[in-house]
Amino acid sequence: GAGVSQSPSNKVTEKGKDVELRCDPISGHTALYWYRQRLGQGLEFLIYFQGNSAPDKSGLPSDRFSAERTGESVSTLTIQRTQQEDSAVYLCASSLIDNTEAFFGQGTRLTVV
Amino acid sequence: AQSVSQHNHHVILSEAASLELGCNYSYGGTVNLFWYVQYPGQHLQLLLKYFSGDPLVKGIKGFEAEFIKSKFSFNLRKPSVQWSDTAEYFCALRTTSGTYKYIFGTGTRLKVLA
Question: Which option is the CATH number for B3-113: 3.40.50.720, 2.60.40.10, 3.40.1280.10, 3.40.605.10?
Fold first, then answer.
């Protein structure tokens, strides 16, 4: 695709519900990243995929958060039993394995009410 | 532990003023360094990057940054800002061993007054 695509662009959910956020990286990009950006704060690393495996999950804040990637393409970030503190913009980025520039999507703005 | 520190959280300038945004990093190995910009309502875009070689790198829209290894710094500069430079600017490093993740600073919000 032309760029990194994320869906939905906005999501409002009730506390306690599960949500799934989707990322379509640029075709051919083997590296994929998820970040969280809380209001007024910087980008917080969540997880990194190389192909379909995740060598670094160190940023996932709790076991309510999980992510998977299939076909070295689409990735899904799942948040179970959402809490108000999960409200943030979730950003996805992708890059070529030997190209160190990451390209970002527009993000999904998650609001937990 | 790796980290990136941006000292200025909010900067307000008049058009034609010069800009310098500070960025310091902490990392024990070789780094790749970046400045990203986020214009209002848009996604993060790359301004410039440093991998190796000439420590003075030039990016888009007249921006440049200088890598000073002894100071662990990668400050962003522009000689004359425009109203359209109003945005949030993020400094980032990419680790070159292990999992190659990007570590971002907290960002600097720049407002340029017309």
Answer: 2.60.40.10
